[in-house]
Amino acid sequence: MDNNFFKNIEKKTGVNMKDVFELANSLQNANFKDEKTVRNVIRRVSQIAHKPVNKEMEDKIVKSIVNDGKQLDFNTISKMLNKK
């Protein structure tokens, strides 16, 4: 993709695309049945998005993914963060 495309996304969102790609690469072989892994991913997404997640919300997201088997993707996490 065009580098300007990513620069425009960074300007509009304040999210560093390099961080997003690094996170995406780290998710490829992640075990989403492991609570510690899921918590680390949630914290990393929160940090990248500049959206703090309190303990209660983190617990809800973890339960949703680990226990209920929901997909872990940016859209799912984003929806959960926006419900706060």
From TrEMBL:
InterPro entries: SpoVIF. It holds the Pfam family SpoVIF. This is Sporulation protein. The lineage of its organism: Bacteria, Bacillati, Bacillota, Bacilli, Bacillales.
